Amino acid sequence: MSNVFIAFQTTEDSRPIVESILADNPGAKATESPGMVKIDAEGSLTVKRTSIEERIGRAFDLQELQVHLITISGHLDEDDDEFTLAWPN
Amino acid sequence: MDMKATKKLGLKDRYRNQTRGLHWDTTYQPMDEVFPYDKYEGIKIHDWEKWEDPFRLTMDAYWKYQAEKERKLYAVLDAFNQSNGHLNVTDARYINAIKLFFAAIPLHEYMAHRGFAIAGRQFRGVGPRVACQMQSIDEIRHMQTQMHTASNYNKYYNGMHAVHHQLPRMWYASVPKSFFDDAITAGPFEWMIAIGFSFEYVLTNLLFVPFMSGAAYNGDLGSMTFGFSAQSDEARHMTLGLECIKFMLEQDPDNLPIVQRWIDKWTWRGTRVLSLVAMMMDYMLPKRVMSWKEAWEIYFEQNGGALFKDLERYGIKLPKCALQGIEEKEHISHQLWAGIYQWNFGTSVHSWVPSDDELDWLSAKYPNTFDKYYRPRWEFWREQEKTGTQFINTGLAENCQVCQFPMLFTEPGDPTTLCHRETHYKEERYHFCSDHCKEIFENEPEKYIQAWLPMNQLPQGTCGGGTLEGWMEWVHLVPGQDNGNFEGSQDQANFQKWKGQVTGNN
Amino acid sequence: MQLDLQAITLQPLRHTFDNLKERFGDKPATRYQEGTYDIQQNYLYHYRPTWDPDREIFDERRTAIKMADWYKFADPRQYYYGTYTIARSRQQEAADANFQLALDEGLADTAPDSLRKLLLTVLLPMRHVEWGANMNNTFISSYSYGTAINAATIFHAMDRLGIAQSISRVGLAVGGEEILDEAKTLWMDAPQWQPLRRYVEDTLVVKDWFELFIAQNLALDSFLYPFLYTHVSKEAGKSGSPFYTLATTFQKEWYGETSRWVDAMVKAAANESAENKALVQGWIQAYRAKAEAAVTALAETVFAGNTAGVMAAINADLDARLKKIGL
């Protein structure tokens, strides 16, 4: 199964996002490089709105991810609650 | 007819209502006249409604998030400029990497803006049209944030003052120029495969991620900031490219051979353009992030591999040129920097022979090739420099008719022989750097015979009268300032002087 | 006590890029200038477009007007992407606050029938007109000459998409997807909408981009916007509900700003030469009459016997505007 990945700028705002991704996706692995953190996962990876909201204590719109994103790999499916990257086979 | 209906609508339905719902089939004018350009390439689309919107941003959210990004970016840029942040870079040699970037990229981001505007007008389907328009305006953003970052560097360093004049005129600038000219003169579907898919999806990570990490490693906060900020839009763009190729392949099996040919063509053309990045990563960054070979392995072989494996279900095969790319990852950066070095009287970047620890780094990163083929050459050239007989190549190399690089890449399987291919077309002989460029030519000879080749023009006197001095004036290259060796350059002296001014008391 | 915080001042080698120095002298350029002037290439193209093989990639001949310098189409607002998005996000935020207030006050649910009818029969089908305006401005951005005009027109195109979406949200709030479908049926079939739909569709096949600029951004919009956001808005207020006004504040402010830019473009073209002026005048004449007729057909459904008065007021404003431009 191929890896998907997502990378964020390393900022105060992206930290809870990265934390919730790592908590929600067992097996996901984060790699830090200057200014950037890249998370790799086998097959698929999901970002959950509620999980981020728990960490930041306020409502979060998944489209806010746009502000911090650097790059992604895999097919994207996004709705109000989840943002999922996957290679279907 | 009450509000509850609205509240129940999820993101997908809200987006659909606010975009797809806007469309109607025209009746006062035939649809084929309203959309005259989405059939002539031979791509068959039966149902535009099958298009899946990748990101579902409406304009209110777009303005909000993009404005937030812009506020952050310009705050950093202002602070960077006000505090003379350029003096915090590792070493003034680094600035040559961004000179190359600013010469090659922002004006082509602009070309991407125009190309996506065309696609954003000409596709019959609403979904792709809106996504292309959004990308079109994003590309203006990228061009402008890059020009705004370049602005302050241009005030203090040479070689960037004439990027506008040099875009059509400078011999190496014609490499990316021919790439974008080629893409924008194609139809909207090929444009999407060329830029939306091959460049944005398969190759863009190789440009931005290593380059921006390079900026971060080398203390260039300004470039790092615009780079990562621009890259946040790329996630949207990559998704568009991927959606587009899936859509084309799912619509009709007859599309497969056309799409495959475009993927083969544009992966190769993109790989050739990215040789410039390879050279930058391996030679121009004083503090290295990773080698070109490593970046290629992560972003092309692994990530691109996953992508092509996924596309197998449609019958898409890994582009033929990928094998040559895999072999060349060990060579191209060395060959290209050697080219820049020997023609550096005609470049608006400075060049240099790598230092000992840099040679060691290259030996370690390229155990299969560097000591065998390239290190001895650099050591020899360094000796020559010491004795005042630096190797300057005043001969003009032929340009490849397709990618427009001078012939400086070597034979597959034989890194000691320059690769050269040729073909005859309508009584004329045409030259190529590789089998892949030759094949691209042979598929569309009428297009590529139009190419404007800088090396062919020089002796004809169309570029400043035929003399070297005339040519330099014509390309706005100031001899002794913009070109030549880094060692002894004005940039080097100024950087040292200014660094002393801000850290010392004199 | 004085706090003296100062960065060292270094002597720059130059103040700007060669192209800007040639235009404005060696002085620091604005971000608008740096992000706009001479960004589009203008010669030594490598290949002819497969979609227009008789012309170059960027070609001055895609309009009949001629300019010695296409950067006379500089944007008086000096919008580059950053200032543009920041301005729009502010306007959007203010407009959202109004709209949200209207929703919180239940104004969408309690809209009187007369207002609901006005929304359905006049405002909501306009989202299709905005979509046409988006396509037309994307066309202009694609085929016009010089970064000044084509950057501003893609911004404008996105504005029109934003407005189309904003109108859609009004529809969703008052009547869900059903009311948007009803509005579309009116757009497609109702007799009073057909002159306008014909006008929009006819502009979708115009090939001269400056002609299209006149047809869409000057001729049509100068009837449409005052009609919808001044006169119909006033009429909607008679229902006793402020919903219509609160739901369309973005358009009103936006039009005030945008029409000044439109005027500056038309003025730049017309002032260039007598030939340009004649062309511009010819286009205005041709499109103005059709735009007026299209909007009149709608106005009659709203203002009945007062239609002539409303149209006269709109015409008078347009005359004053054209006079100011010198036409």
Give the strand content of chain B.
under 5%
The arrangement of helices and strands of chain B along the chain is: HHHHHHHHHHHHHHHHHEEEEHHHHH
Number of strands of chain A: 7
Write down the CATH topology of the domain at 48-341 in chain B: Ribonucleotide Reductase, subunit A
Mean pLDDT of chain A: 92
Radius of gyration of chain B: 24 Å
CATH architecture descriptor of chain A: Alpha-Beta Complex
CATH class of the domain at 48-341 in chain B: Mainly Alpha
DSSP strand tally of chain B? 4
Widest sheet, order of strands of chain A? 2-3-1-5
CATH superfamily of chain A: Monooxygenase component MmoB/DmpM
* Cα Rg of chain A: 12 Å
Read across the widest sheet of chain B, the strand sequence of neighbours is 1-2
Quaternary status: heterotrimer
Secondary structure topology:
The complex is a heterotrimer of chains A (89), B (506) and C (327).
Chain A: E1 3-9, H1 15-24, E2 29-33, E3 36-42, E4 44-48, H2 49-56, H3 65-68, E5 69-73, E6 75-78, E7 82-86
Antiparallel strand pairs in A: 1-3, 1-5, 2-3, 4-7, 6-7
Helix pairs in contact in A: 1-2
Chain B: H1 3-8, H2 11-18, H3 31-34, H4 59-82, H5 94-104, H6 106-122, H7 126-156, H8 163-169, H9 174-184, H10 188-217, H11 221-251, H12 255-284, H13 292-311, H14 321-328, H15 332-342, H16 356-365, H17 370-386, E1 410-411, E2 414-418, E3 421-425, E4 428-432, H18 435-443, H19 445-448, H20 454-457, H21 468-474, H22 490-503
Antiparallel strand pairs in B: 1-2, 3-4
Helix pairs in contact in B: 4-7, 4-11, 5-7, 5-12, 6-7, 6-9, 6-10, 7-11, 10-11, 10-12, 10-13, 12-15
Chain C: H1 18-24, H2 31-34, H3 81-104, H4 113-123, H5 126-143, H6 147-189, H7 194-203, H8 209-237, H9 243-247, H10 249-272, H11 274-303, H12 307-325
Helix pairs in contact in C: 3-10, 4-6, 4-8, 5-6, 5-7, 5-8, 7-11, 8-10, 8-11, 8-12, 10-11, 11-12
